[in-house]
Amino acid sequence: MAKRALVEHRPWLLASVIAATAYYFLWNNPVGEGVWGILLKGAGVGLLAVYAMRRTRGVDGAILVIALALSAAGDMAIMLSFEAGGALFLLSHLVAVGLYARNLRENPAASQRLLALALVVAAPLLSWLLSARLDIAAYGAVLGAMAAGAWLSRFPRYRVGLGAVLFVASDWLLFSRLGPIDLAPLPDLFVWPLYYVGQVMIATGVVQTLRADHES
Fold first, then answer.
1. Which of 69, 67, 136 shows the shortest CA–CA distance to 98?
2. Which residues contact 82 (CB under 8 A, 6 or more apart)?
3. Is the link from the previous residue into 187 a cis peptide, with omega within 30 of 0?
4. Tens digit of pLDDT for each residue in 144-166?
5. Nearest to 124 by CA among 84, 93, 83
6. 3-class SS at 177?
7. pLDDT tens digit string along 163-185?
């Protein structure tokens, strides 16, 4: 019954999961190379953007769609240029920061504030240590702001907040490919699953809250 409900009511979400799973198993295969591989990779989060567009309305819903669409564009662009992909992800994080700033939780607990502060500090610091690049550290500062904003937002913390933390962990593994610390084979195994699962958690958590707002 749950599978039928997913097919009937959330087909774009199901299509996203299928595309992301296919990419994970085909990315290092000749079938997953070239234009088809780029399109398949972009389809994972791109279809999440379509899912969010069809399941939400209003300004916050539009901001979520834009953030997801920019991430999908980044997924494709990074296969051609690391810098171009990074720029698109930077824009996606800035848009997401705006979404979370519009939806801050009232009176978060001290422990929640401390974790948000830890993300703000750790994201750029570890990004620099893993990559040995100052531009990556600067990107990490925006990444940390995004994750901290998600954790302090009114959206479900153990879905949206945790999803943002998974996104950060995925980027740290990605950055380890650039610097002196060799974490192989962990990046090949976990960068995509951590990133995609994080994006699903963010998208579905925000959509759930926004739909509840309009139904109340």
1. 67
2. none
3. no
4. 999 999 999 999 999 999 999 99
5. 93
6. coil
7. 999 999 999 999 999 999 889 99
* Matching residue, tokens 């819903």: 61
Q: What would you measure as the largest C-alpha separation in the chain, in angstroms?
A: 52
**203 and 64 Cβ atoms separated by less than 8 Å:** yes
User: What are residue 153's DSSP bridge partners?
Assistant: 104
| Cα gap 216→211, rounded to integer Å | 9
Domain count, the chain: 1
Task: State the residue range of the domain holding 161.
Answer: 2-215
Question: Does residue 132 come out as left (phi exceeding 0), alpha (psi in the -120 to 50 range) or beta?
Answer: left
**Is the pTM for the entire model greater than 0.90?**
yes
Cα angle: 71, vertex 72, 78; to 5 degrees: 80
Neighbours of 200 (CB within 10 A): 21
